[in-house]
């Protein structure tokens, strides 16, 4: 319990620092949010109208005062109002997060399962043909960018052999309320596979090294001397000691997966939180960017503490 409260206090402090850092860094962006919002009509806007927009958005206030107002509203669950989407930022994130969560969760779980399985097979058959083949595939996947993998899968399974849809989270003409579960799963197949390959190679290689080192350890020799062999030895002795580094790398790859997910979803035209953030790029100081960046950083911070608490470490 003491460890839990210690981690919880550190998590709260870190989230406050993340909120402050997110707001301050985006506030120093060289992009003027008013100019980005007005766009090509800037020449038709008089200076007094420009000043009224700045006053309405609170950009005429000092930085510390703007952060205080924004952070106080954030504690109340109000992330502001997005002029780009013409709706509250919390509603924008909530609407787009469902697709992003299904995509990231599926890719994260699939990369972990495939990585651990391939690493286990490579370590079990060390320096034999399964090990050599798995190592070559893992090195290749670790060096390929996400968007290239996404375009290759798209060219093969959506154009060359049209068994999966080309883009989007559901069929054209449907929406989040009318799309069927089978339809959503078909549209998620290619993005999930593309993102899962992003971290699968590294997990497989690390698991292979750990399996190989455990197989050469003294307690494995002692277990074999006691008559323990076959699947019982692998399940109770080898896999138990090799799974912890794989889980550590799996949780650490979540941030990379969220970052690579933006380019992967953009290549496959899957609408989600990353696509919404991509549309907010020109106005880096808009409320949608603040809220989106804070949510992503908070998820990255929380996954570290979740794994640390699960392992009982500091």
UniProtKB/TrEMBL annotation:
Any GO BP annotation: transmembrane transport
Any one Gene Ontology cellular component term annotated for this protein:
plasma membrane
Q: Could you list the residue ranges that cross the membrane?
A: 7-28, 101-126, 138-159
Task: Kindly give the CDD domains that the UniProt entry links to this protein.
Answer: TM_PBP2
Q: Has the keyword Protease been applied to this entry?
A: no
Which one Pfam family would you cite for this protein? BPD_transp_1_N
Subcellular location, in the record's words? Answer: Cell inner membrane; Cell membrane
Q: Which UniProt keywords apply?
A: Cell inner membrane, Cell membrane, Membrane, Transmembrane, Transmembrane helix, Transport
Instruction: Specify the protein's topology with respect to the membrane.
Output: Multi-pass membrane protein
Its primary localisation, in coarse terms, equals: membrane
Where the record annotates domain ABC transmembrane type-1, the positions are 97-314
Q: Which family does it belong to?
A: Belongs to the binding-protein-dependent transport system permease family. OppBC subfamily.
> Any idea what this protein is called?
ABC transporter
Q: Which organism is it from?
A: Salmonella enterica subsp. enterica serovar Sanjuan
């Amino acid at each position: 319990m003491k460890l839990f409260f210690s981690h919880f206090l550190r998590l709260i402090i870190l989230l406050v620092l993340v909120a402050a850092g997110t707001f301050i860094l985006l506030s120093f962006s060289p992009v003027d949010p008013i100019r980005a919002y007005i766009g090509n009509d800037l020449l038709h806007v008089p200076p007094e109208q420009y000043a009224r927009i700045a006053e309405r958005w609170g950009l005429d206030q000092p930085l510390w005062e703007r952060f205080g107002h924004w952070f106080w509203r954030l504690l109340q669950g109000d992330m502001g109002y997005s002029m780009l989407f013409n709706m509250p930022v919390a509603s924008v994130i909530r609407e787009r997060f469902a697709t992003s969560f299904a995509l990231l969760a599926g890719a994260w779980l699939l990369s972990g399962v495939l990585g651990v399985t391939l690493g286990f097979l490579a370590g079990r058959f060390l320096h034999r043909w399964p090990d050599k083949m798995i190592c070559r595939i893992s090195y290749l996947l670790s060096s390929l960018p996400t968007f290239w993998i996404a375009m290759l899968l798209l060219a093969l399974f959506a154009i060359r052999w049209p068994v999966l849809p080309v883009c989007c989270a559901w069929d054209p003409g449907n929406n989040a309320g009318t799309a069927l579960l089978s339809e959503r799963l078909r549209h998620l197949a290619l993005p999930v596979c593309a993102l899962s390959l992003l971290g699968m190679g590294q997990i497989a290689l690390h698991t292979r090294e750990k399996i190989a080192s455990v197989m050469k350890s003294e307690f494995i020799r002692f277990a074999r001397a006691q008559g323990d062999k076959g699947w019982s030895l692998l399940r109770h002795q080898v896999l138990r000691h090799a799974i912890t580094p794989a889980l550590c790398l799996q949780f650490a790859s979540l941030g990379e997966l969220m970052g690579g997910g933006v380019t992967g979803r953009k290549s496959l035209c899957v609408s989600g939180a990353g696509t919404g953030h991509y549309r907010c790029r020109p106005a880096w100081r808009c409320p949608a960017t603040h809220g989106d960046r804070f949510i992503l950083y908070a998820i990255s911070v929380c996954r570290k503490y979740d794994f640390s608490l699960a392992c009982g470490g500091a």
